[in-house]
């Protein structure tokens, strides 16, 4: 295949232009040519179709159906629709969903303006996610990668999650190598830096962290040089993220989108628990709801900064499953329904268990 072949929106636009003509002519005109065993130039139909499907937001997998040339692929529902459904199926997060839809709308309008030859202001796609753990930041970041892939903004749309330990080396110089490697791996997709504020932590006597500064400087350069095919999302607690963004003069200007992730409400936490239980093959009995409501109310009333997050419901479910197992083992035999059902007995927590949710 020649390097001059069209991809993404350009491929779609060229394809639409064609009237009645042969498939081979369309493929050749878009630059998809390969050479057979005799050295003859022939249309590269397989690569053309795969890139056309990708440009239209159709998910191509390496499993199921095989093409005649041995290439395995399956066409799923359009990636944009699939990703939006995934977003909408998340419990709560109404403000985040609205923000993501606005981002999609902006991207589409920019693409339409470019098609009509209109100028567009330079727009950074890098983002800051602010909020406590367990509020959906990682999940939404993954979806954003898929959305930008479906819109032909990112070439791959994959997701790479890192933290300080994965970026920082043990000695000066090693950090550069580790950070570059991770940035190269993330190129074409989303680099998600959790607890990004840990990169700018101070040492004793307010001395700056040279290892963190080294990683930040490399990050800044890469974010600018590869801004067309890389999205960096930094995440963490709001106050700590504000300090992080002030730690380097060039950091704040690299990010144009700030999304705040609030704690879940009591009703949303209950829905999360029910959903997680179902996904794990369990159902909650009706008699368990009053005690679960009480647990959630007490948990939320503790006023801890990270209360009201989905991880607490995962912890609660794990405790209930353990208690159910102990309860059922007191019986001679157990039915399938009993193995699946969590009752009010399974949600009787000790004070220390409740405190550590």
Q: What's the SSE pattern?
A: HHEEHEEHHEHEHHEHEHEHEHHHEH
Strand content of the residues, in percent? Answer: 5-15%
Unreliable residue stretches: 58-77
Instruction: Tell how many strands the DSSP assignment holds.
Output: 11
| Rg for CA atoms | 25 Å
Which class of the largest domain in CATH terms?
Alpha Beta
Helix vs. strand class:
alpha/beta
Treating each run of at least 4 consecutive H or I residues as one helix, how many helices? Answer: 15
Name the average pLDDT: 83
Q: State the strand order across the main sheet.
A: 6-7-8-5-9
How many distinct folded domains? Answer: 3
State the CATH architecture of the largest domain: 3-Layer(aba) Sandwich
Basic shape: globular
The CATH homologous superfamily of the largest domain: P-loop containing nucleotide triphosphate hydrolases
* CATH topology (fold) name of the largest domain: Rossmann fold
Give the biggest sheet.
5 strands, parallel
Measured as a percent range, the helix fraction is 40-55%
Rounded to the nearest angstrom, the distance between the terminal CA atoms is 56 Å
How is this fold's topology laid out?
Blueprint: H1 8-17, H2 23-29, E1 33-35, E2 41-43, H3 45-55, E3 58-60, E4 75-78, H4 79-88, H5 94-115, E5 127-130, H6 137-150, E6 159-162, H7 164-167, H8 174-186, E7 190-194, H9 210-225, E8 231-236, H10 238-246, E9 257-260, H11 266-279, E10 283-284, H12 289-301, H13 310-328, H14 336-340, E11 341-342, H15 351-355
Parallel strand pairs: 5-8, 5-9, 6-7, 7-8, 10-11
Antiparallel strand pairs: 1-2, 3-4
